[in-house]
Amino acid sequence: MMVAEIALYLARLLNQNSIRLNLQLVEAGALLHDIAKPRSLETGEHHNVLGASMLEAWGYPLLAPIVRDHVTMDDARLNNPITESVLVNYADKRVKHDQVVTIQERFADLVERYGKDREHRKYLMGKINQYAELERRIFEHLAIGPTEPALMAITTKSID
After folding, report:
1. In the beta sheet, which residues pair with residue 96?
2. Are 54 and 48 in contact (CB under 8 A)?
3. How do the domains of the chain map onto residue ranges?
4. 25, 128, 134, 156 — which has fewest CB within 10 A?
5. Could you tell me the sign of the dihedral formed by the alpha carbons of 58, 62, 64, 66, in that order?
6. Dihedral over Cα of 138, 144, 145, 151: its sign
7. CB within 8 Å of 35: residues ≥ 6 apart
8. In this structure, are residues 130 and 75 in contact, taking their beta carbons and an 8 Å threshold?
9. Which sign does the torsion angle of CA 59, 61, 66, 67 carry?
10. In 3-state terms, what secondary structure has residue 96?
């Protein structure tokens, strides 16, 4: 729910400026981004890949890429236009459990919870630079910054 709140908040602001995003797609993708996480915790499958496969099989080809792409960022997507998929990915990196946090706080949490070994922790910490660039690209279109009090105060009780 929190990822959806953040993604929709930012998507609405972006839509008032130079970016055009489908709000229904943002909301659905954000709500479903972890759809396969419970099963993946049992089976060891990658929850993003499994979730995308599930959505494809159920006839939701527009949602599948959002779910598939929400875990990591690569340079190609970073340098292309901001899409629903990219925004949900970013929103996912701004939420720690039930609160909005900075990219740095979220990655510290990811390293602590998922850093299996030294190499994996190093990989995760290396991703901070990509997300800092993504954050810069998103917020260059907005009149607010990434730590805007209204953004940081979003909760699941903020639902319209």
Report:
1. 99
2. no
3. 2-158
4. 156
5. negative
6. negative
7. 47, 51, 54, 55, 67
8. yes
9. positive
10. strand
Q: What angle do CA 25, 20, 33 make, to 5 degrees?
A: 25
> How far, in Å, CA of 40 to CA of 71, rounded?
14
Q: In this structure, what token pair is assigned to residue 134?
A: 């993504």
CATH 1.10.3210 correct for 2-158 = yes
DSSP assignment letter at 43: H
Could you tell me if 141 and 87 are in contact, meaning their C-beta atoms sit under 8 angstroms apart?
no
d(CA 14, CA 104) in angstroms, rounded, equals: 23
What does the pLDDT profile of the chain (160 residues) look like in tens digits?
A: 999 999 999 999 999 998 999 999 999 999 999 999 989 889 989 899 999 999 999 999 999 999 999 988 888 999 999 999 999 999 999 999 889 999 999 988 888 888 888 888 888 888 899 999 999 999 999 999 999 999 999 987 654 4
User: Are 131 and 90 a contacting pair, CB within 8 Å?
Assistant: yes
Tokens 């959002």 found at: 66
Burial-class residue 6 by CB neighbours within 10 Å (0-12, 13-18, 19+).
buried
Cβ contact 21:11 at 8 Å: yes
Contact 4, 27 (CB under 8 A): yes
